Amino acid sequence: MLAAVKILIIDDEPLVAKTLKRLLRAYDVQVLHSPHEGLEAVCSDSYDLIFCDLMMPEMSGSELYAIVQERAPQVCGKFIFITGGAFSVESEEFLNTSGKRVLYKPFDRKTLQAIIESATSTTGTS
């Protein structure tokens, strides 16, 4: 039942992505370390949830999200942003105004499960 939920993780930090994938092993999970690859995957495949790092060097999570809003707006409700709390002015404003779910590092299994349950009940995924 859980494996039916397809999750994409976009995070430039391999250790964070690996940890998140391990915690999500009951789900169908794909990990990408490049926001550019993540953008292509988000726009070309169907994921139930998308965990996206907010601060990445090539393209920030908010920049990626802005492009997705233009190319595939139907996907926007599936985003959950990951952050360690180091914000630029732009990213802090984005989080304050977007209303998107945020998973703060460090996180534990209980917090992760709660955010997934909340997100899947909102998006209609089971």
Q: What this model shows, in words?
A:
The chain is α/β, with parallel strands linked by helices and 126 residues long. Helix content is 44%, strand content 19%. It has helices spanning 14-23, 35-44, 61-71, 89-98, 109-123, and strands spanning 6-10, 28-32, 49-53, 79-83, 101-104. A 5-stranded parallel β-sheet has the order 2-1-3-4-5. Helix 4 links the parallel strand 4 (79-83) and strand 5 (101-104). The radius of gyration is 13 Å and the shape is globular. The protein starts with 5 loop residues before the first strand and ends with a helix.
Mean pLDDT across the residues is 88
Percent of residues in helical segments? 40-55%
Strand order in the sheet with the most strands: 2-1-3-4-5
**CATH fold-level assignment:** Rossmann fold
Shape: globular
Work out the count of structural domains.
Answer: 1
* Oligomeric composition of the shown chains: single chain
Helix-strand string: EHEHEHEHEH
Number of contiguous helices: 5
Strand content: 15-25%
- Which radius of gyration do the C-alpha atoms yield? 13 Å
- List the uncertain runs: none
CATH class group: Alpha Beta
Which structural category fits the helices and strands? alpha/beta
- Kindly state the number of beta strands: 5
